[in-house]
Amino acid sequence: MGMAQQRGGTLTVGLGYDIDTLNVYSTGFLGDVQAAVVEGLVAPNEKAEYVPVLATRVPTVQNGGIKVAADNKSMVVTYQLRPGVKWSDGKPFTSADVKFTWETVKDPKFIAESKDGTEDISSIETPNDLTVIVNYKRVAPDFKSTLFTFGILPKHALEGKDLNTDKYNQMPLGTGPFKVTQYVKGQFVVLDRNPNYWGKDKAGVQLPYLDKMIFKIIPDSNTLVTQLKSGEIQMAYSVPYSQIPQLSAQAGLKVIKNPVLSWQHLDFNLKGPAALRDINVRKAMAHAIDRTTISKALGGYPIPISTVVVPVFSYSNKDVPKYPYDPAKARQLLEAAGYKAGSDGIRAKNGERLSFNIMSQAGRATDEDAQQVLIAQMKAIGIELKPDNKAGVAFRDARYKGSYDLFYSGWITSADPSYGVFFGTKGVNNGQGYSNPKVDALLATADSSLDPAVRNKALRDFQTVLMQDLPSIPVTSNPSMIVVTDKLGGFVPNPTNMTNFVNTSGWYLKK
Amino acid sequence: MSLSYIFKRLLGMVPLLLGVSLILFGVLHLAPGGPLDVYADNPSVTQEALDNMKRAFGLDQPLPVQYFRWVTAFFQGEWGFSIRSAQPVMEEVLARVPATLMLSGSAFLLALIVALPLGILSATRRYTGVDYFITLMSFLGISMPVFWLALMLQLLFAVQWKILPSAGMQTIGDGSLPDLLRHLILPVFILAFASVAGWSRYMRSSMVEVLSQDYIRTARAKGVSSRRVTYSHAFRNALIPVVTVVALDSASILSGAVITETIFAWPGLGRLFIESMNGRDYPVLMALLMVGSFALVLSNLLADLAYSLIDPRIRYD
After folding, report:
1. pTM summary value
2. What is the DSSP letter of A464?
3. Where are the transmembrane segments (chain B) (predicted)?
4. Is the CB of A112 less than 8 angstroms away from the CB of B34?
5. What CA–CA distances, in Å, run from B268 to A88, A227, A286?
6. Which value does ipTM take for this structure?
7. Residue range B285-310, pLDDT digits in tens
């Protein structure tokens, strides 16, 4: 087998942000460290498909794990839990912990950002230690992407405590392959092998292989790269594209491309300048974008896309209306719609010039570079774009309120995304004011059906309608670049919002 | 200078800081966005959850009420809870103070020890090779961007020669003093370099001015050795304008070095400030800004006291 001699060792990972809390339900980040410590009942794998973790199987209608009521208005999900699982402090993991998780997260006194999914549940029964019966108020096909996937809370350690301030937030207790042994704020988190971990490899060897994982907090991306080069860290993700060529040349390191579930898009604010409500203007702009040039400007890593559903998903629709790069056609569309070029080359109609602000996130180099290309490409057809970039909270605020003309950025989703938040009339991330009852209806169908055929059809049709309306131009899907030591084995990148660290037990360092 | 004078000055700080706090609070809340926008980045956050959090943090109250609540609590030593981490603000700030004191304090002392002699050397050897060299280095120090110099030194010492760590405060699992000192070398040097450059220029010009005064000429004419003229006649008088600059800069010992701390992953107050700013973590921001303001007011007082120590003619009542 040879695996045994590859046990042991410490992997030091560089994190580009400072951790706020290690509670998966409270953090404003995706939770890299947490993923190695706290486990859920199921988790998405590298293909964004859910696999069992603390449950013995993923409940589906076919395997009897999901029973939909006759009136199609509610459902019951039954989980069989893995026997013999222990918390890292040695106490047994049972169905009571699952019920406790729901009750705790739902509690209004608990200040959490991720309460999603708690309201859909009416009650939970625990007939025995290893069975959990969850009664849903509605048919919720996205039930896997929230509550019990994020992580299970330990009842014995948290009962009666205030989870808002409890030391669990610094030292979470989990069932995962590692446990937190030291957390120094602003500096690092040390994870040690969890001796009580339930996982074994195919040869029956106790997992995880690694003795230790260290997460070092290094907010500056240049420093992160320096630390990779000096060997002070052995892994970093989301490394800027511009740094990749020199890191690939570095001995001892290897670069891995992770096609994350995100897409870059150019949005129109439909509550903004009147010209942006003219479909001809939007179509012309879509034809004016050369995605290959944008990709090249970013080192060739981004993949051109023509729909908002990234290609990883089976329901990504390749037959949506497309707007291939064709500046001549773009000019013709604008000409026909009455936009004539002025003396400065910028088109105008009835005195209204096609001149807009384009917002992007200040300081995010890849987006700012793409923005420059977009500005040049629009100028070629007589549309003026002026950069109006904002940072941090100001950027988010503008995005949600729609205080921009055009907006270039990216969205990332879970393995089981709900597109209603972006394109639904009431979607929280729909700052651009897009509204189409047809889209709302299709998304509602997708969000309330367990039949894959029905969901796929609704989501495919939604993409077609969206690309006819063109409130948003999908531009590229930007992979995340991961740089690791070439000694790291057993690592597979994870494209979902459960991060690359969702399955660390099989990682090992070659001697 | 009397104790009652110091007491009066300290008492005068209270209304000043109160006014400062009002302005800071207003400016912070005028800036777009709020602490909960961070969560809105996650598409799975519901409006109900956001509303609950708003209520829990008191963000649903009108601004004057929020300010009044904050100010009364703050002056009672009740600094509230961080919105980002849910930990007491006092704890968050105190956890970062040692790192900042160590970094900024060492850099401050180093800069002081180097800058003053350099400035004097430069002034007494005016228009010689030594002076030109020091001047050149000073301008390099003032005009070189911190992040660039830091990156170059990291590459040289950590990547090429592998003799110093490129960032962080300790080798994980090794909390020893030599290890800490090794981690301090690069950031302290970078931070001190810029200060040395500025301060030595002040020292030089102040010294040049004093050295051209009549009483110095008289002393020289009377045959006092040039060493004695420089150090016992000119130095003290030349020090006064320098003290002003140095004392005001000393406030940064407490407010932290934002860029240096970020580049070197140093867990100090400057970095805490940036993170809190990005998250609009009002309780932490207000605490940090107040600590910074307090340090500034205090260093002003120290500067005044230092004057009277250097020059006995300056007295306060």
Report:
1. 0.89
2. H
3. 12-31, 99-121, 133-160, 180-199, 238-264, 284-307
4. no
5. 32, 20, 47
6. 0.86
7. 999 999 999 999 999 888 888 888 88
